[in-house]
Amino acid sequence: MSFSSDEVNFLVYRYLQESGFHHSAYTFGIESHISQSNINGALVPPAALLNILQKGLQYTEAEITIGEDGTETRLTESLSLIDAVTPDIVAARQNAHNAQKQATKTEPGSGGEQNGVDGTPCTTGAITGGAATPSAPETMDVDQSIEIPASKATVLRGHESEVFICAWNPSTDLLASGSGDSTARIWDMSDNPATTPNQLVLRHCIQKGGTEVPSNKDVTSLDWNCDGNLLATGSYDGYARIWTTDGTLASTLGQHKGPIFALKWNKRGNYILSAGVDKTTIIWDAATGQCTQQFSFHLAPALDVDWQTNTSFASCSTDQCIHVCKLNADKPIKSFQGHTNEVNAIKWDPQGQLLASCSDDMTLKIWSMKQDTCVHDLQAHSKEIYTIKWSPTGPGTQNPNMNLILASASFDSTVRLWDVERGVCIHTLTKHTEPVYSVAFSPDGKFLASGSFDKCVHIWSTQTGGLVHSYKGTGGIFEVCWNSRGTKVGASASDGSVFVLDLRKL
């Protein structure tokens, strides 16, 4: 067997995505023409590049130690990747081991990948039976009473590539998901045990030669409006789109030049806010689909946006800066500087008073419009912090008697809960074994769900920091989310699966 250059490029592209280097992955994908290859990403398992390299190392080790007579001399230490590609070191080891006569039998392993072609026709709002399959989770190192049984999990199959995002409709149990297969899907998870969940397929298409064809670009962001009757999606094809709950494309918003990384409705539901690789943020009129105002203050790709009010918002960027902007203002009304690496995510607290930011510089910072420097500089994580969420608690919320908490998810495999008023970490949640990509609070603020590339969704008590429930899926978890009643957790994964955990009667 052999690799084509397209296959190698795809494995590198996927490795960059899985490692959180999304902007490097985007640039590499453009330069290597990934979208023009015939490789079906759904057939390539997570960590494929690392697995193939590891198998290659094992084969090289075996090759070194097998003598001409078929016997094997035991390696005193395993090869590193650098060793394996350095002929002098390999030859020296081979000579040394050939001089020894300790024999054990082994067979070198080998592995391969298959690639396919995706020729899906381009239609909108296709309804198919939701392929709900019994889940087959691997075992976990947690107490049996904590592990969620397979009977309480519904696995939704349909996406043909990794599923980056998912979000519950605020009014009904419709779960939206967005994938690298250039579709979003709406799954009907309302309680009807007699039927399998239906899925609406929202195909993201572009005009080519007078016809609509699949964009072949990732759907990277989605958000429901407050009424739950419209879904907005953002894609690597540079377009934002608005869909109705029956899968009809209502508007296409085209002003960004390149991928959209984030997109949010305001509370009133009349504007949509987006952030793009073109360094700009845009406020869109949701009713007309027109660009109301474009903001060009960042010096590098804008990574995240969050509304403060119905007309003001914050944005962050790989340029390490945060800007607070307002509709009809021609410059930022506030700018925050202090991070020393790209700022991955920003979130206003429930009252819009404090702004939290997290960065590849391994810090969380809390900002106030009342001062230029950060209110708190929270340093405890040992690797990049991917995302943050505020609890729906504290003064002015539906849960005023519970303290306001900030949760942070990091590539150091931990989640931390912070008392922001005091600026201290109150709980460190350590059961994950791989980078944590997503956290979400239950509507009452009593629980936190976390999803990691270790394939696990953990549910924690925010009061004690104790692990309450756990479920292990079949792919690395990109996103977790709660339904509006706090009875179900949705999750989306790198193997194309979406699953829903029913927490009632657990």
Report what the structure shows.
This protein has 506 residues and is mainly beta. The protein has a domain at 5-98: Mitochondrial Import Receptor Subunit Tom20, Chain A, CATH 1.20.960.30. Helix content is 11%, strand content 40%. It is built from five helices and 36 strands. The chain has a five-stranded antiparallel beta sheet with strand order 1-7-6-5-4, with no helix packed on it. A five-stranded antiparallel beta sheet has the order 2-3-36-35-34, with no helix packed on it. A four-stranded antiparallel beta sheet has the order 10-11-12-13, with no helix packed on it. β4 (163-168) and β5 form a beta hairpin. α1 (5-18) packs antiparallel against α2. The radius of gyration is 24 Å and the shape is globular.
* Overall average residue pLDDT: 86
CATH class of the domain at 5-98: Mainly Alpha
CA radius of gyration is 24 Å
Q: Strands of the biggest beta sheet: in what spatial order?
A: 1-7-6-5-4
Low-confidence stretches are 101-121, 133-137
List keywords for this structure.
506 residues; mainly beta; 5-stranded antiparallel β-sheet; 11% helix
